[in-house]
Protein 1
Amino acid sequence: MMRRLFWRIFAAFWLAAVLMLLAFAWVTMRNFENQEIPGLGITRLQAAMDDKLGRAARQLRREGEPAVRAWLETGDAGAIEIYVYDAGGRELLGRVPPEPGRSAALGLLRAPPAAEGTGSVTIGSGRMRARTIRMRDAPDYVAVATLEGGFLSRLVSRPPHTLWMHLAIAMSVSAMVSLLLAAYVTAPLARIRRSTRRIAEGDLDARVGRLRFGRSAEIAALASEFDGMAERIKALVESHRRLVRDVSHELRSPLARLRVALELGRGGEAPVAEAAFDRIEREADRLEGMLAQSLELSRLETSEGGANDEIELDALLEDVITNAAYEGAPRGRKVVLAERERLRLRGAHAALHSAFENVIRNALAYTADGSTVAVRLVRDPARADVALVSVRDHGPGVPAAELERIFEPFYRTDRARTRGSGGTGLGLAIAQRAIQRHRGSILARNAEGGGLEVEIRLPLAKGRD
């Protein structure tokens, strides 16, 4: 397929080059033919006609009518056709020249001898010339020269000076240039095709890479887009593999506890069996929540764009905080919107609601009893078109080396591995994917005075508060 594309592109380039060369040759020939010879008052074309007419006259006078017939039959005159009429008005080969050549010839035959002269006369628009051929001891003849055939036939028959050689050289050079251009265009496409084939065969590291020799912006952009697509495919595949691996690992512990609880429930007394069944119910709920969050994380990682709802951030946070406050009330943990501005953005309402809910619930799970989780919504001081949402708890914080890893699926710090909080390790990963989907960013840092502070930045809707 690439070979056929190469030759099609080559043919297109070469055809364009040949047409340009022919156009140049046509203009050159027209200018040459119509160029007036200084001092003579005739063009080069008319001079060429006069030369042929003179040859016909010389042959008639020296060798007679049979020699002229033989010369006319050979067509040696090239693109300039010569017609010779005898005194009776008959053309020597029985041909009929285009008008007004025949009429002019007959007119010259009937003209008085004194008016004939010995020179040639122009007929019509200048593409015909005629002259009377005086014979010493025989009736006179009239010869008519006409320019016949189109541009190509004239070019082939008798190009001016070295035009034919120049055209041959130019066409050869244009063929070489067309070959180089075709290779220049198809080479990066062949690289893209090879990379596509490697990816289809399972090599997710295949890339087109940077194109050399200053490829055109369009082809370079195509290669860049292809590499971006390949990176995205690789990230998705690796994410799915990692998710499957992590889910498989996380399912082992609750499944093992389920088996133990089942054994206790089958053979134990009523109090033991009831406790075992309660444990089974808790583990089943944990598994259900883990699977639901795993599906949500997978959906966020594989989706691009999405809904385009108009979202009031302060109202969305109020709703999340109201729901979270009920969960923290039994242990005296509060959630408040300590600072707020009326800010709007466009995006997927459900995804952002889930993101803020996971961040706030995570803070509520780790903040100290009787403490308050403070949520703030303001414009980013560094960029007025970006909303900044901070969520600060008063918990134990996170070791500095693990601040970035808490957004990985199923990752827990050492202090959280007891699962005393009841979490699955997916909440912050889901929040990060949802924020990134909206072209935002999320980061965590240890706050002064203790606790963890999570900062979320999201671009605001243009032209709106």
Protein 2
Amino acid sequence: MLKWRFPYLNDADFEFKEGEQETMFQKLAAKLKISRKAMDSLLAELQLY
């Protein structure tokens, strides 16, 4: 749903190695120009759908 809401995201933005999921979230937050806390809120909101 993030790619639908933010079309400039691509598959590579969601790739991560085992144990590096937090790094992926930090990179996504940076690309979206939001804080990590805002990223958590966004993910929580999307889980409602």
